[in-house]
Amino acid sequence: MPDRIVLTWAGDPTTTQSVTWRTDMSVKKAVLEFAIAEDGPLFVNKTQQTDAKSESLKTDLGLAQYHSVTLTELKPSTKYVYRVGDGVNWSEWAHFVTASEQAEPFSFVYVGDAQNNIKSHWSRLVRQAYADAPRAAFLLHAGDLVNRGNSDGDWGEWFYAQGFIPRSTPCVAVPGNHEQSKVQNEQTGEVTRRLTDHWERVFEFPKNGPEGSREAVYFMDYQGVRIVGLNSTGQIEEQAVWLDDVLSNNPQKWTVITFHHPIYSSKRGRDNLELRDLWQPIFDKYKVDLVLNGHDHTYARTRLMAHKSEQNVPAGVRAKSDVSGTVYVVSVSGPKMYDLGREPYMQRVAEDTQLYQIITVDGDELRYVARTAIGRPYDGFTLTKQAGKPNKLVETIPDTPERVRPQEEDTDEVTSVKIKRRESDQVPIITPTLRLTNPLAQDQDDLCVWRDNQSPDRSLIIASDKSANRLFVYDLKGKLIQSVEVPMPGNIDLRYDVPFGNQQIDLVAVNQRAEGFKLRLYRLDRESRELVAIDHGGIETGPNYGGCLYRSSLDDRLYFFTTSKQDGCEQIELSINENGFYTGKKVRHLDVGKCEGAVADDQLGMLYVAAEDEGIWRFAAEPGAGKQGTLMLEVGENGIRGDLEGVALHYDDNKVRYLTVSDQGSSTIHVLPLVGGSSTYRFAIENAQQSDGIEIVARSFGQEFPQGFFACHSDHEESCPILVTPLPSIVKALQSK
Questions:
Q1: Per-residue pLDDT tens over the stretch 608-622
Q2: Are the beta carbons of 271 and 475 closer than 8 angstroms?
Q3: CATH assignment of 103-308+319-395, among 1.10.357.20, 3.40.640.10, 3.40.50.2000, 3.60.21.10
Q4: Is 0.85 topped by the overall pTM?
C-alpha cells in the first residue's frame, strides 16, 4: 500500500502539482489517478492516469521504492482530487488546489526545526497549526526536519506526526545540517557530509537552482510572492551569484527567503557572519521582505534590519524604525531547546517554547502571527508596502507574557558576579561570546591563535577541521578570512619569528592524517593574514594523531612532537636544507599510551602530553633528555573521567604557569597551577560538549578581548564550532565560592 504521500511543486504552482510516495519493492508499476474535484463521487468517471517515475532507496531499515509524478497543464485556481497506487492497491482520494494566476490573498504556515522526538512531541504542534490554518497554501520547513538525515525511522516519524496533512497541504522545505548525512571513507576513515539521499526521493522541488544543488536551492512564485529556498550548509558563494540573478528578475510584489542557519542568531556567539556578509547585501539590494530561519532552537524576531544596522540600534526593544530592511525570524517547532541571548534589535523572543507561524499575504499587506503549541498567540506584526518608501512595520505583539527562563545564577558574595553552576557537580558554567563556524565546517577539533603584536585587533584564530579536510582562518569577530585544503588535518600549533631563508616568519604547523602521514608547514603572512604553504607537499612523519611544536631556548632548534594512537610520541627535528626546504629527522621516541593533545614550554624545556586514558605526562623536551616521564595528573583524580584531549599552557601576571586540559569524559576543563600540589580548578563552557582542542591566551587582543580569551572545540552540534570566552569571565567564576 502507498504511504508517505506528500505534495510538493517541481514547477509552476498555477499549472503543476508534484506528488511523491513510497511502496515496497514488489510494486513494479506505480500510477497517479486524478480529476477535477466535484461535489459528489461521479468524478471517478472522468479521471486520468499518469505513470510515475520510480527509484529505489536502500536505507538502514531496508529497500523501498519511491515514486513521483509531476502533473502539468492543470487549470489555475482549481481543486483536484487524486489517489496513488499500482492499479489495484490505492491510497484514499485526496484534494489539492492549484494556485491562482493573480496575486490573490493566501496564507502559509512556517515552522523551524522539528528534528527530535518528532512522533511524541512535534505531532501536536503540526496538527494544531493545521487546525488554525486548514486552508494554508503550503507548510514551509526551515531545515532540520529530522535529526538523522539517513534514518528511515526519523522520516517515518515525520510523516506519522502529520497524518493526512502532507497529502492535501503541499510542503516547501530547505535542508538543515541534520539533513546532511555522514559518509566515511572505508580506507582513510575520512568523514564527509552530503545531502541525504532521502531528500530527492521524498521531495520533488524545482530544479532551477545552481548546478549540483540537488533540489536544495530553488525558487517558485505563488500568487504575488517569490519564495526562495537556500541551502546554508555549503556552496554559499555559488548561491550568492545565483540569488542575485533570481532577484534581479523578480516580477513579484513580495519576496520571502528561507534557509536554515540564521544570520541574526537568537544566541550571541552563534551568528553566521559569513552568510550575513555575503547574502544580506543582496537581500538589501533587492528589498527582500522576510527571511525565515531555524537552527537555534529558540525564538527571536527582529525589527527591519539592513546590513550592519545591528550596530545602530534604536533604544528600547519595542522601538519602531523607519529604516529600510528585512524582518528576520528564528523559530523552533520541536522540543529540543537551547539558551537565548537577547539583542537590542530583537522585538520578541522566547525560550522553551514550541511555535508555528501563520503568514498571510493580502495585496499590499503581509500579516505575521506566531502561536505556541497550544495555539496561544505569541508574536505578531504587519508589513505594508509603500510606494517609493521602505515597508512600514507595525507591531501587533499580543499581551502574552514573554516566555524566557528565570535566572538560575547565584551571586558570589566576594566578586558580585552571577555564576551559573552545573547541577550535577557545581562546576561553574561560563557563557562564550563568540562562536566560530562556517558552512564548510564539520569537525573543528583543534586550534591555535596568532597575535598581531602591532595591531592586536587584527589577530586570528586558526582552526583545524579533520572532516572538512581544511584549515579555517577567522578574525576575532568570527569572520572567515581563509580556507586551506589539507587532507584530514590534526593538531595545529604556531611559533613566532622563526628563521626561514633570510627572513623571520610566523610558522604554523599541523599534522596530516590522510593521503600519507605528514607534517604540513605554513607561513602566516602578516599583511594579508593568510597562510602560505612552505612545505613543498609536507614532511613524512609515519603514523601520527596530534602533536605540537617546540623551540629550544638552548640552541634555538625547532622540533615537532607527533603523538599517536598506538606508537607513542616521536620527536622530529625540523631544519632547512641547502635548497631552502624544511626537512624532518626523528631524534627521540617517548613511550606513552594513546595520546593526541600535547603542548611544549619553550622557556623551561618541558613537554606535556595528554594520554587519553592515563593522565598528563611531563617529559623534558630536549632530545638528549632520555625517555623517562612523570605522570603528573591522573585520570580518576580531581573528577577527571578520562579521554583527555586538548592541552594548553599560559602564565598570569605573576608569571605563575598554568596547564589547562580538556576532559571529554565529563565535558569539563581543568586548570592546574604548575607550582605546588596537584589539585585543579574546574569550569565548563556553556554548550561545549566533549571538547577536544583548546587554547588560552592571557594578553590583550584589542577591543574584542582586552584581557585575553579561552577557546575550545565543541561537539554540541553538527559543525563542531570553536567557542570563544573572555578570560576575565573564567577567572571570576573560578574565584567565586
A1: 999 888 889 999 999
A2: no
A3: 3.60.21.10
A4: no
